[in-house]
Amino acid sequence: MRSSPVRPESSPSHPAWFAAPWIQTLWCIAAAFGTYACMYGFRKPFTAGSYPGTAAFPDPKVWLVTAQVLGYTISKFAGIRVIAEMQPKRRTPMLLGLIAIAELALLGFALVPPPWNIACLFLNGLPLGMVFGLVLGFLEGRRMTEAFVAGLCASFILADGITKSVGTELLHQGVPAPWMPFTAGLIFVLPLLGFTWMLNRIPPPSALDVAARSERAPMQRAERLAFLRRHGLGLGMVILAYLLVTVIRSLRADFAPELWAALGSKANSTLFTRSELWVALGVITANGLAVLIHDNRRALISCLLLSIGGLTLVAASVLASRAGLLPAFPFMVLLGLGMYVPYVAVHTTVFERLIALTRDRGNIGYLMYLADAIGYLGYVAVMLARRLWKAEGSFLEFFHTVTLASVVIGILALAGALLAFRRLRASA
To answer: What is the value of pTM for the model shown?
Structure first.
């Protein structure tokens, strides 16, 4: 299916060559992927480092991750309103301002002595949580939205590994661990500016896009509450599954070095990128192909079934690994593929097609931030529980236990959403 042609009256500043649908598609994917991947350069490199503990903080990395995620979670809750009501002209200056605040917080992390620099990672996570919604606003409500957002989501799969590789390489080059996150952020400043400029050049949805996917508009409080009243049951089931996937996905991402070590593989600067490359290819293919399903209801149902399949793959991978049947590298790849399929499906298809099917006034940003806020709150709870959990066992055993429990409940929740959404009828 081709992407929408540019309406001349809406984008007079674009040259003639930009009107080609395939150029627009590649441009949108590259702009979204690049912008969000660069954001990860200000968020994730610190997780590649090791930080010495003290008597009061014997495991500082857990506290550092928890502090950043707590700030990120608060940002997601604020974004429920801020992103839902965001006017298009405010997206770019807000995006760049938030990134600047995050980088200044990393400077503070380098300058403030531990353990007080934990607060700086909280301040780093606080602005970054809204970046995704700002980028998403440029892409939704189009006939090629799944392909565009699949490219965007590929960034947080690949960039997680790439930025860890950057952080690891900086450490190998002799950059002190406290200064490594700030230095990594500087590397991504110029690319971020270039990709953000590309985002600004994306034209608005065409009339054909609006006809196929409905017009997207800012949502005020009354409209947000009305949407929840109409679709609360199905949304609740999706958000529950999303919460559980967020927990296991975040554990895998933030403690990748520890997982690789527990599996018997020494992490290096390329291992993270190689594993996530295979994950990204599979997830982009599986979720991006939803653009080929024109019927919004059929696409929504198919996506929920695909998500159930992804969680089933996660369970099978964990059981095979525990039985000694799966080596470290294929285990991490299959684990990532299975958990990212439903995680990305919510971003690319579930909420996009729900709005398109019901024709309700709204935008994906509101629904994504509602899900993300609850998801990251659940992750913070798990991180704190891990600190208080006195049971014996390795981090790998803890990860296996949390993952299997999350998968079982997540599959049941998605099945409930499937039943709830099957009742929806396409609106004119």
So the answer is: 0.81
